[in-house]
Design brief:
The complex is a heterodimer of chains A (about 850) and B (about 220).
Chain A lengths: L2 H12 L1 H40 L4 E6 L4 H5 L4 E14 L10 E7 L1 H6 L4 E4 L7 E5 L1 H4 L10 E11 L4 E2 L16 H4 E17 L14 E7 L2 H6 L3 E7 L5 H19 L4 E4 L1 H6 L9 H32 L1 H9 L4 H42 L16 H28 L2 H9 L12 H20 L1 H36 L6 E5 L5 H18 L5 E12 H4 L2 H10 L8 E9 L1 H11 L9 E3 L1 E4 L7 E4 L8 E6 L2 E6 L2 E2 L14 E6 L11 E7 L4 H14 L6 E5 H44 L1 H9 L4 H38 L11 H28 L2 H9 L1
Parallel strand pairs in A: 3-9, 5-8, 14-21, 15-20
Antiparallel strand pairs in A: 1-10, 1-11, 2-3, 2-10, 4-8, 5-9, 6-7, 6-8, 12-22, 12-23, 13-14, 13-22, 15-21, 16-17, 18-19
Chain B lengths: L1 E12 L6 E12 L3 E6 L5 H9 L6 E6 L2 E2 L5 H11 E4 L11 H12 L5 H11 L14 H13 L5 E5 L7 H17 L3 E5 L3 H6 L2 E6 L2 E7 L1
Parallel strand pairs in B: 3-8, 3-9, 6-7, 7-8
Antiparallel strand pairs in B: 1-2, 1-4, 4-5, 9-10
Helix pairs in contact in B: 3-5, 5-6
The complex binds adenosine-5'-triphosphate (ATP) and magnesium ion (MG).
Chain lengths: ~850, ~220
């Protein structure tokens, strides 16, 4: 081996600890890059897999292809795989309640197609022969036709044609081209050439993808049977779904589509319909509006941050290593080493560090990705109710290559400047430096005050910091970066937690159910109430409420508070007619109303009325505060204009405790009365949600969802699990915290490696000076005090810069989302205290470590060592 | 044969009021095989001249020819290559590489040049230097005199045109210093090696073929013994 490389390796092994710490720094930064790239790849893989599950695992489908033309597609060199399906035809769906979907659309799929079309089985099994059928649950929930697994149905399947003779496909809506508002099957289209076929229903699937199988506007519900390839070849035109070799090449794909459609058109005049699985293609990089672009950008920025801070830190390690060898490089140069040779030897050091650090980092990165993915799945598995795709591992070769490239560049840039510096060392500088260290007296002047307060130890400490200002600058900057990021991100996360807590804490209920019934109010109310009562008795609910609502008008001039008038003036166009303010009249169900009154301590009478009108008010100049909308007191008699004329209501009590489901931050006043009150009639009110405060909300939600899926009557129910939503949001914040704190942690650790290297080398470089101080009689205690003061001085300096920067950054972040939240900026005290603690622990530990080493050193040995 | 020629060599430090003329228009030449001593008071400019002769510093003006070559017309890298082949420098504080052993320190100029070290020459040299039992030791395991012998070995390994020594005995007791001087004299006599040695020791100066006296950066005496 070349003598300079040998020299480099020997120095590295002599400074084993520093070498290891530098390698750890490199490994950490590599691991971080690898983890970020790996998480990105995992996300991409998850998204792609989700798309495959939802929309099918193919890129393009050519529909209605004459069978003799299929070979052009099968044999195309850009195609990796394909599968078939075939339209069997349309049949009437008797009793379909959806006027726009009067048909069943029968489709035959081969084995591969059944597996790769994004079909999700809810119940039963997939069809295994041409007599078995799976139906979409949409037939039950939307069409409201009751089918069960095991039923046998006989269908008259044929072609759907328009009265003009034009053949219609599933892409033509029902009653295509008709101007009539009342769809009329007889008039506009019909099914002809029917053949009768009996099927057994073996399973129920989710509604097929609207992107790739059943468009929303499709006139038929899709039902699927199994066909073998041979059976398909005997039938009419086929659909072929293909998987491309390179889905990211958009022009190639368009060319492929055009060639195929043109060829078929020329040969047979058949018009082939092309369906692109655009969601999948998008995530595989095909479309220009790539949804991943934003994420790629963020990841790019994050990696840039890692690279910049790593270069900064690793560069410092090389700088230390080079400065320590300055004299030796000078000697090398004086006996004839060229600058190129010296530069190369520093780069060789970088190569050596990289060869160990990068593979180590990649290993750690992969482990980190596996653990993170596992953690994300663990944290989300019980809150994602549907059968969504789990977060997947995805760390393909390309992520590793990106990491290797990025880290190599990082190390190269970290080493190149120290390398150039080393190669510029002239022998004369090295020889002179060995005789006298050039320090300008003025630069290290310290005040007399320092001496008075801290004694000579303090003076030497301060002088030393000034002397090696540049060395300590890196340490201070490292600390500042960590402190700033820590404070800013922590306060961001705390605000996030506060926000979710704020929105979900005080609802008083955890599940809401709304029956959507598209009928005239009075009839709708009746049906809804029936459903609600069934739910209440089915599940033995006790803590629930429902209410009827209707808005009325109130005289703003007479009753409105000053602030309310201000709001009105600023929001309306200030018409004379607009002297009325809306007030909501709410009829609570009688059970809950009694309970509510008890809580308020109000005696119930027939026409008891409760008013809530508190409002969180803020203007540009005024911070938030709670105001009242009306000047109304307990016992006041007020007039309200309703649809049924002007009503006179006596307000029994004004309160700031609204009933379940209402909260005070809306800008409307509410009057709560009983269901049985005759102030206004229930028939003109709208029956709103059923609010339930369930003991086991998740269980109840699952049961309700079951009802929706299996019973046609409940098909229109929308269920909202507040707690699950809040929980989901909390989990997402938790996952974000893990990611962000992990990120801060590793960035900080990288910084710590740097701090460790700087401080320990500095201690060692000064060991002769320390030996001298000891030899002239400095006690161990004084000595430790001196070192301690030194640590305090630059720890404090980092905090003095880092804390204001961190607070400033968190304020900027706060400002960026402040419009949406209702709390003010607060100094992130906790993160500030933690960062102070952290800085002194880090600094203290490193100091203690190097002190231990120095105290062990023998004075004579030290002085002698420095002489060679 | 003339091996070294110095023409109007000037080296100044600083600017304006602080300007120091460390070497002030010095010219002389040295024949091959001469043993030259340079003497003078502390701060007179001896080390500066020696560094300029060795090509480790650059003059403010003037020229240095070694073996007929104007060394400061060379680029830095070519000058480095010239140094490792044609010049051997010995310093007062040995200036060895602490993590390389004796043998590696000695062969450093060869290794840098990518030459194969002549094993026989190396073992002869080690024997001459009295270091045959110390070849694998690190510098801090050696005495001052031994360390200085290593640096002489390093200077001699490539058979340079000229050896320059800056107070090689300044740090040593009289016995060790005698050994060093006899080694230098030996190489001068045995290999007809040109040696220039800076010294405060008049006894050493007396043993040289020629003594050059420097004062305030100027040559004020040039005598042959
Ligand atoms: N880097 C420098 N900057 C300014 N002045 C310098 C520098 N190097 C040397 N000098 C000055 O040049 C003069 C000559 O220095 P030099 O080291 O050559 O003296 P010397 O004769 O070797 O002395 P000594 O016998 O003490 O080693 C001195 O006055 C010194 O102060
Ligand atoms: Mg000198």
């Amino acid at each position: 081996m070349n003598i300079l490389n040998k020299f480099t390796l020997k120095s590295l092994s002599k400074n084993k600890k520093r070498t290891i710490v530098t390698i750890i720094g490199v490994a950490l930064s590599t691991a971080l890059i690898c983890a970020v790239a790996g998480m990105l790849m995992s996300l991409k893989k998850t998204l792609i897999d989700t798309e495959k599950q939802n929309n099918g695992s193919f890129h393009i489908r050519f529909e209605n292809v004459p069978k003799e033309e299929l070979k052009y597609i099968e044999n195309n060199q850009n195609i990796k795989g394909y599968f078939y399906s075939q339209e069997i035809g349309f049949s009437y769906l008797e009793n379909s309640q959806n006027e726009n979907k009067p048909y069943l659309y029968v489709l035959g799929l081969d084995d591969e197609a059944l597996a790769n079309s994004g079909l999700k089985l809810i119940e039963g099994k997939m069809p295994q022969n041409e007599n078995e059928l799976v139906i979409s649950n949409h037939i039950i929930t939307n069409g409201r036709v009751e089918f069960k697994v095991g039923d046998t149905i006989t269908l008259d399947i044929g072609n759907r044609v328009h009265n003009s003779g034009y053949v219609l496909s599933k892409y033509n809506t029902f009653d295509y081209g008709s101007s009539s508002n009342e769809p009329n099957i007889e008039n506009s289209e019909k099914i002809i050439d029917t053949a009768s076929k009996t099927y057994t229903i073996v399973g129920i699937i989710d509604r097929p993808s609207y992107n790739t199988m059943e468009p929303f506007s499709s006139p038929g519900y899709t039902v699927i049977t199994h066909l073998t390839r041979e059976q398909i070849m005997q039938g009419k035109n086929a659909n072929i779904s293909v998987y491309l070799k390179d889905p990211s090449d958009r022009t190639e794909m368009e060319k492929l589509i055009n060639t195929i459609t043109d060829t078929i058109m020329e040969d047979t005049k058949a018009e082939v319909k092309v369906i692109k699985n655009s969601e999948l293609l998008r995530f595989e990089g095909n479309l220009s509006d790539n949804s991943l672009t934003a994420i790629y950008n963020i990841v790019g920025i994050v990696i840039a941050i890692i690279v910049v801070s790593s270069v900064f830190v690793i560069k410092n390690s090389f700088n230390i290593s080079v400065s320590e060898k300055t004299k030796q490089y000078g000697m090398m140069s004086s006996v004839g080493a060229t600058s190129k040779q010296i530069r190369k030897s520093v780069l060789f050091e970088a190569l050596f560090i990289g060869l160990i650090g990068i593979p180590l980092g990649i290993l750690c990165g992969i482990i980190a990705v596996v653990v993170l993915v596992w953690l994300v799945n663990l944290l989300t598995s019980d809150i994602i109710l549907n059968d969504s795709v789990l977060f997947l591992y995805g760390l393909p070769l390309e992520a590793i290559l990106i990491t290797v490239a990025t880290s190599s560049i990082t190390i190269f840039f970290s080493a190149i400047i120290p390398a150039i510096r080393a190669s510029r060392i002239t022998p004369i500088e090295a020889i002179r430096e060995s005789k006298d260290i050039k320090i300008k007296a003025k630069k290290i002047k310290t005040s007399k005050l320092t001496k008075k307060i801290f004694g000579i130890g303090g003076v030497i400490a301060a002088k030393n910091l000034k002397r090696s200002r540049k060395k300590y600058r890196t340490t201070v900057i490292s600390l500042v970066v960590s402190i700033t990021i820590f404070i800013a991100l922590s306060s961001f996360l705390q605000d996030g937690l506060k926000m979710t807590g704020y929105y979900y804490n005080d609802y008083g209920y955890n599940i809401s159910v709304l029956a959507n019934i598209d009928k005239e109010t009075q009839l709708a109310n009746k049906e809804k109430l029936e459903i609600y009562n069934e739910i209440i008795s089915n599940f033995n609910l006790t803590d629930y409420s429902y209410n009827y609502e209707r808005n009325g008008q109130i005289d703003l001039e007479k009753y409105g508070s000053q602030e309310n008038k201000d709001i009105h003036r600023s929001t309306t166009d200030n018409d004379a007619s607009d002297n009325l303010d809306t007030i909501e009249i709410v009829k609570l169900d009688k059970n809950y109303f009694s309970r509510y009154l008890k809580e308020l301590g109000v005696k119930e009478e027939k026409n008891t009325a409760i008013l809530t009108d508190e409002f969180m008010y803020s203007t540009e100049n005024n911070p938030q505060r709670v105001i009242r909308l009306f000047n109304i007191k307990d016992g006041d008699n007020i007039n309200i204009i309703t649809e049924e004329g002007e009503k006179n209501i006596t307000i029994t009590k004004v309160t700031n405790k609204p009933p379940m489901g209402f909260y005070s931050s809306s800008s409307v006043g509410y009057i709560f009365i009983s269901e049985e009150s005759d102030l206004i009639s229930t028939d003109i009110c709208y029956l709103d949600r059923l609010l339930i405060n369930a003991e086991k909300p998740n269980e109840l939600e699952a049961n309700l969802l079951d009802m929706v899926k299996t019973d046609v009557k409940y098909a229109g129910l929308s269920i909202n699990n507040i707690e699950a939503n809040a929980e989901a949001e909390k989990r997402i914040i938790l996952i974000m915290s893990i990611f962000l704190y992990g990120f801060i942690g590793v960035i900080t650790l990288i910084g710590v490696t740097n701090i460790f290297n700087t401080i320990t080398t500095n201690m060692i470089l000064r060991s002769k000076e320390f030996a001298m101080l000891k030899s002239i009689g400095m006690t161990k205690k004084e000595f430790n005090k001196m070192i301690f003061l030194e640590s305090i001085m630059y720890g404090a300096k980092s905090l003095l810069i880092g804390i204001p920067l961190g607070v400033g950054l968190s304020y900027l972040i706060y400002r960026s989302y402040a419009q949406n939240i209702e709390f003010g900026f607060r100094l992130p005290m906790m993160p500030i205290l933690l960062s102070m603690l952290f800085v002194f622990i880090i600094v203290g530990l490193t100091m203690k470590y190097s002190l231990g080493k120095i105290n062990k050193q023998n004075i004579v040995e030290t002085i002698r060592n420095d002489n060679i | 044969m003339e091996i070294l020629r110095v023409q109007n060599l000037v080296k100044t430090y600083g600017k304006g009021e602080n300007k120091v003329k460390a070497v002030d228009d010095v010219s002389f030449s040295v024949e091959k095989g001469e043993l030259v001593a340079i003497v003078g008071a502390s701060g007179s400019g001896k080390s500066t001249i020696l560094h300029l002769l060795g090509g480790v510093d650059r003059p403010t003006s003037g020229k240095v020819y070694i073996d007929g070559k104007d060394i400061y017309s060379l680029s830095n890298d070519n000058l480095a290559i010239f140094r490792r082949r044609q010049i051997g420098i010995i310093y007062q504080f040995y200036n060895l590489i602490p993590i390389l052993n004796v043998q590696e320190n000695i062969t450093l100029p060869c290794d840098l040049d990518g030459q194969n070290v002549d094993k026989e020459r190396l073992s002869n040299l080690l024997k001459t230097l009295g270091l045959e039992n110390r070849a694998m030791h690190l510098p801090n395991e050696l005495s001052g005199g031994q360390q200085q012998r290593v640096s002489i070995g390093r200077a001699m390994i490539n058979n340079p045109a000229i050896i320059l020594a800056d107070e090689p005995t300044g740090n040593l007791d009289s016995k060790a210093s005698d050994e060093i001087v006899s080694l230098l004299k030996l190489s001068n006599k045995k290999y007809n090696q040109t040696v220039i040695i800076i010294t405060h020791d008049l006894e050493i100066a007396r043993q040289a073929d020629r003594v050059i006296t420097i004062e305030d950066g100027k040559i004020i005496g040039d005598e042959r013994n």
